[in-house]
Amino acid sequence: MRIAVLAVQGAFAEHEKILDMLGIEHFEIRRKSDLEQYFDGLILPGGESTTMGKLLHDFDIFDTLKEKIENGLPVFGTCAGMILLAKNLTNDDTRHFATMDINVRRNAYGRQLGSFETVSSFGDISDVPMVFIRAPYIESVGENVKVLSTVDGNIVAAQQGNQLVTSFHPELSDYTEIHRYFIEKIIKQNV
Ligand code: GLN
Prior knowledge:
The chain contains five helices and twelve strands. It is an alpha/beta fold. The chain is globular, with a radius of gyration of 15 Å. The mean pLDDT is 96.
């Protein structure tokens, strides 16, 4: 089991820490040559989606990653990572990988509530600590998308086949269960 963590910008080190806690081998994707390595899954971290999108093109890694995701590579996007995967952004004309059938609102909580923490459930898992930082949420999903978590009526976690997204940052709570879900349920497909 080997996981690639996109490390062009944002909170990638925190994801690596969680993977270390789970004893999962990982490496960083920073340039095109990194894509020659074998990996079973990909993590797209939080950060700034516009910057990440631009760097993916500048470093010529966008097309290869998009193709791998379209061909079924398991991918877990948190926050900005969710924005990278969304087919549609409801308040922004930009599109990135656009592989997941979700309509996402960027900075959905506005400035007043830029960052907050709460506890909610995720699928069968209860009491999940959720840290939101200038977070997006999902306004609506396509019919192949499974909603895994809502907070105040807004969708904050979802899955479509090989793609998992969260508005919140499990990696900032030192919380391993969402990454474990990604590894067990999506990569190993132990349903
Ligand atoms: N607001 C950021 C964006 O739109 C996402 C914030 C985050 O990843 N913590 O890209």
